[in-house]
Design goal:
Rossmann fold; 12 strands; elongated; 2 domains; Arc Repressor Mutant, subunit A; alpha/beta
Length: 231
C-alpha cells in the first residue's frame, strides 16, 4: 500500500485548520499543523511533505521568506505550496506565484474548495487517492466512502453500501436480480433476502440523493448512469 500523502498546515486560522484537517484525514491523508515559521522549517527539513498550506496568520514577509527558501520545488521532490492571502492583495498574489507557490487563494475561503485544490496538487504529484463518481446531486469519493452533497453536507457510506454501489457501477444499464446482489454485494448482516434488498436500495438511493438506480418490477434493479458516464 502506498504511503499516505502528507499535508502541512502552517499558521492557518484555527477553525479553518480544524475543518480542513478533518476533511483531508477522512480522505486518507496525514495532516500536520504548525503555528510558527520555525516549526514549518523543521517539517520541511525532515522531508516527506507533499503539500504545505501557508495561512495568513504569517506576515506577508514571513510567508514570502518561507516560499523563497522552499517554494518552486514540487517537481524536484519538495512540497507544493498553497498560500492563503488577504482579499484584493494582487501584488502579494503575484509575488507568491513568482516565488514558487503552486496556488494562491484569498481569505475568507471555502474549506471544501481548498481541500479540492490540495487534492488537485496531490493528483498532479501522483499522490491522489480519490475515485470520484459524479451523480445528479452529489459526488461520491469511493475510496474514502464519502458522499459530498451539493449543499456542502457530507455522509459516510457503510462498507455494504460501497459494495452495492460498486456492483451497480460495474454493470451499467444491466438489470441485476436480487440473487445477483446477494452474491456480489452481501448485506452487512445475516438477513440478506427478499424485502431487505429493497430496503438496502432505498437507503442507498436516499443517501446518494439519486434517481439513477431504477426498480424493474419483477426483475430487479438497474443503474442508469447520468450523462457524465455516457460512453
Amino acid at each position: 500500500m502506498a504511503a499516505r500523502a502528507v499535508i502541512a498546515l502552517v499558521s492557518v486560522a484555527e477553525v479553518v485548520a480544524g475543518e480542513l484537517a478533518d476533511h483531508l484525514e477522512r480522505r486518507g491523508h496525514d495532516v500536520r499543523q504548525t503555528r510558527q515559521p520555525w516549526e514549518a522549517e523543521s517539517l520541511l527539513a525532515a522531508g516527506g511533505i507533499d503539500v504545505i498550506v501557508v495561512g495568513d496568520g504569517l506576515s506577508q514577509a514571513e510567508g514570502r521568506d518561507l516560499l523563497r527558501r522552499h517554494g518552486g520545488k514540487g517537481g524536484e521532490g519538495g512540497a507544493d505550496f498553497i498560500l492563503i492571502c488577504r482579499p484584493g492583495d494582487l501584488v502579494d498574489k503575484v509575488l507568491a506565484l513568482e516565488l514558487g507557490a503552486a496556488d494562491v487563494v484569498e481569505s475568507p475561503l471555502n474549506v471544501r474548495e481548498l481541500a479540492a485544490r490540495v487534492g488537485g496538487l496531490l493528483s498532479r504529484r501522483g499522490r491522489g487517492n480519490q475515485e470520484l463518481i459524479v451523480l445528479e446531486n452529489a459526488t461520491v469519493d469511493l475510496r474514502s466512502a464519502i458522499v459530498m452533497h451539493r449543499s456542502g453536507a457530507e455522509e459516510q457510506l457503510s462498507p455494504g453500501q460501497v459494495a452495492l454501489l460498486k456492483l451497480f457501477l460495474a454493470s451499467p444499464r444491466k438489470v441485476l436480480t436480487r440473487d445477483d446482489i446477494i452474491a456480489a454485494a452481501p448485506a452487512e448482516n445475516a438477513d440478506a433476502f427478499d424485502r431487505s434488498i429493497d430496503s438496502r436500495i432505498v437507503r442507498l438511493r436516499r443517501k446518494l440523493d439519486t434517481e439513477t438506480i431504477t426498480t424493474i418490477r419483477g426483475a430487479g434493479y438497474r443503474f442508469d448512469p447520468p450523462r457524465q458516464f455516457a460512453d
